Structures are given as C-alpha cells and as structure tokens.
C-alpha cells in the first residue's frame, strides 16, 4: 500500500483547503445544532471534487481522501455517497444522495430533502428514486445529530432498478462511512487539543497534565487507525477491509467521543463550543449499516467465510 500522497492528490486536497477556507470555522455566536452551506456544496460540484473516483488515475482512494478532508469542516457536506457510491450507479443521479437500507424506514436519513436521490439497498436489488415532499417527515427536535435529517415515509412504486450487486454498494458505502468518520474524529481531536492547550487549571494549561496527555495520545492513535483502515479499504476494494474499517470507526467513535466532551468540562455540554458539530455526526454514523455488531459479523464472514 502506497502511504504517501501523489502529486495529483496533494493538489486536489490543497484546492479543497482553499475553497473551503471560508467554512473552516463556525460563524461568530452561532450555536446551531447543524451547519450546512449551499454555496460550498455548489462550489464542490462545479470543481468536480466529488467526481474524482470516476477518473482512472485517481479512483476510490482519492475519493476517500476528499471525503475525509470535507468531514473535517464544521459544515456537513454530502460527499461520501456521491463520491463513492454514485459512480457505481449512475454519475448523473441528482444530489444529494441518501442511502437507505431496505426495511429501515423508521430511522432518520441524512441529507433527505425534496429532489434528493434516495438509494434503497436491499439483499437482492438496488433501487433509486427522486424523493418528493410528501414522502418526507420532519425529524423534529428529538433527533440530536449534526446533520440535516428527516424521515422517509415510504418508497414509491416507480423506482429505478440498478444493475449492480447490492454487496458492491454496501462495500462502497462502508468505505465512505469510514473515511467520513476518520475526518470527523480528526477534526474533533484538533478542536479538543486546541481547547485544552489554552484552558488553564492550577495555573497551567490542562494539556500539560500527564493524565490528559496520555488520553489525548491514545485518542490520536485510535484516530490514525481509522484513517489508515479507511484508505486501505478504498485502495483494496475488498469487502472484508471495508467492514473492518467501519467496525474500527464505529468503535472509535464510541470510545473517544465521550472523552472529548469530558475533556472540555462544562463547555462540552453546551453548543457554544463547536465540538458537537463533529461528535454528533459521529453519533449518527455509529448506527448506520446495523452498527458495530453488523460490521463485526460482516468482517468475520469476509475473512473466515472465504477461507472455509
């Protein structure tokens, strides 16, 4: 596995940094539960940054790098499904793409809004349709995720069936999910590190205390693991690698998410600090595709089932 970025990948990520610079921080005095930007979304589309997987010289690894980079922003962007799943279905499908497991309509769906493309992944088929307002239910205040969320009331009869294996869509879904989680974890860690480096207790920054430094170092190791497993899954195209990447990502989100808020003390329980813009998104990702137990079963089946 090549661990260093190519020149093309470096340039693409640099361009995204420049493009996203106005969105790298939270607007002053903003305490929103979720942040989105139509202008940022349009700029990413116009620049072709969400279509890099379709270019043979770039492929899924570059797409995963783009997803990870965008996940670090406090603004939520629908990038994973578009960058990694849409090329397998139809590159012209209208955005945003909303991925739904067949039979899971009671769960809130990320980025669901009128005009979005809903992709329904079943055991034997993959279908899609353009959602209309009458099929969308408001998620309400009880859904505390830092994504725009809504409920899908039903699936229309006139859906489009795609000639692609559901397992391949799930694999790409997992790669995107792992890459997004890697970016969220990295941004959350940076945010926490900045805070504890500036916040003083007993006359010295909190980050200088050995216990804090040890826990932050452990969080860094876990976060690095999520990143590299996501990149490995993107590069190998292997279903087992994808399942392992998501398993570690969902485990990591559970393991360090609580720590991050605890490190911030009382500020970690408010919306005044932007930490929730990453950890609440992680909260949503931990339940996708059946959660940790399903990823563990899928990884075991891919690894030991193939060897049997």
What this model shows, in words?
By secondary structure, this protein is an alpha+beta fold. It has a domain at 166-307: Butyryl-CoA Dehydrogenase, subunit A, domain 3 (Up-down Bundle). 51% of the residues lie in helices and 10% in strands. The protein has nine helices and nine strands. Helix 5 runs antiparallel to helix 8 (276-285).
Helix proportion? 40-55%
Give the DSSP E fraction (strand runs of 2 or more residues): 5-15%
The overall pLDDT, averaged over residues, is 91
Structural class designation: alpha+beta
Q: What is the number of E strands?
A: 9
| Name of the CATH superfamily of one domain | Butyryl-CoA Dehydrogenase, subunit A, domain 3
Envelope shape: globular
Query: Which CATH architecture of one domain would you pick?
Result: Up-down Bundle
CATH level 3 topology of one domain:
Butyryl-CoA Dehydrogenase, subunit A, domain 3
| H and E string | HHHHEEEEEEEHEEHHHH
